[in-house]
Amino acid sequence: MSSRKGALSAFISYVAWGVMPLYWKALAGVTATQILSHRVVWALVFNMILLTVLRRWSWVRRVTADGKLLALLAASSALLSINWLVYIWAVNAGHVVESSLGYFINPLLNVALGVLFFKERLRTGQWVAIALAAAGVIYLTIQSGSPPWIALALAASFGAYGALRKIARLDSLEGLTTETALIAPFAAAYLLYLGANGGGAFGNTPTQTLLLLGAGVLTAIPLLLFSIGVRSIPMTTLGLLQYVAPTLQFLIGALIYHEAFGVTRAFGFGAVWLGLAVYSAEGFFAKRVGVKSHSGE
C-alpha cells in the first residue's frame, strides 16, 4: 500500500474515533454499562466474521498455548473495558470536552510510560513537553478544586493498555478479538440478566437496536483502518494524525453540545496543547537531524 493510501486510512480511523461522541449521545437513554456490554459482544461477533472472511485463524493456537500472552491480553482487556466504560459514561454525562483532554494528554503519558517501564531516554524537548502538560493538569486541579478525573482515567487506562499491547505482540484485529472474547461471557451474561428482568434496551426501538448492533462495527472498522495505515506511513505522520480525534471530540463538546469552556479551562488546555506542539516539533526536527547525520556518514 502507498504511503498516501496508508495516511488516508489512518486519518479516517482518527476521524471515526473523533466523531464517536455523536454516536454514544444517540444512545443517551441507555446506561453506559449496557452500551459497553453490547459493544463488547457485537465487536466480537463482527471480528469473528471478519477473521473468517480473511481466513486468519492460525494465531488462536499460539495465543491459547502461551499462558503469559493470554494473561497480558486478559489485563489489556480489563483496561480497555474500563477505558470504554469511562468514555461512554463521560460523553453521555456531558463531559465530552474533558474526555478530549484525556486523549490530548495520552501521547505525552505514553512517553512518560516509556521512561518508567521500557527504560527509554528522553531528549530535553520531550521533558519540556511533559512538564507543560503536567503544569496544565495541575492548574486545572487547583482552579477547579479537584483533578480532571475523567481525563486522567482515560489517559491512564489507555496509556497502560498501550504499554501492555506493546509487550503482548499480536496484530490489532487478532488482539481485539481475543480481548473481547475474554470479556464477552460477562457482558453477555449481564445483557441476558437485563433482558430477563425487563431492563434491556435491545429491541425497544428499531433505531436503538441498530445503534447497539452497530457498536461492534464502530469498534472494529476504525481499528482495522488504523492497522492498515500504520504499516505504511512514518511515525512522525502518525504522531500528527493522532491529534485529529481529540480535536474533533473537543470541537463537538464545545460547539455542538455547548459544554462549558471558560478562561480557566482555556489556560489549562492551552498548557497541554503547547506541550503537544513542543513534542511534535521536537520529534520532527530530531528526525530531520537524525536523517541528515545518517546520510552524511
What is this structure, in a nutshell?
The chain is built from 13 helices and no strands.
Cα-based radius of gyration, to the nearest Å: 20 Å
Task: Give unreliable regions as ranges.
Answer: 291-297
Which structural category do the helix and sheet elements fall into?
Answer: mainly alpha
How much of the polypeptide forms β-strand, as a percent range? Answer: under 5%
Number of self-contained structural domains: 1
| Overall average residue pLDDT | 87
Helix tally? 13
Strand tally is: 0
Helix fraction bin:
over 70%
Structure commentary:
With 297 residues, the chain is an all-alpha fold. It has one domain (3-295). It is built from 13 helices and no strands. It has helices at 3-18, 20-25, 32-54, 59-65, 67-92, 96-118, 124-144, 149-167, 172-196, 206-230, 235-241, 244-256, 263-295. Helix 1 (3-18) packs parallel to helix 12 (244-256). It is globular.
Question: How do the helices and strands line up, and which of them pair or pack?
Answer:
Layout: H1 3-18, H2 20-25, H3 32-54, H4 59-65, H5 67-92, H6 96-118, H7 124-144, H8 149-167, H9 172-196, H10 206-230, H11 235-241, H12 244-256, H13 263-295
Helix pairs in contact: 1-10, 1-12, 3-5, 3-9, 3-10, 5-8, 5-9, 6-7, 6-8, 6-12, 6-13, 7-13
State the main characteristics.
single chain, 297 residues, mainly alpha, 13 helices, 82% helix, globular, disordered C terminus
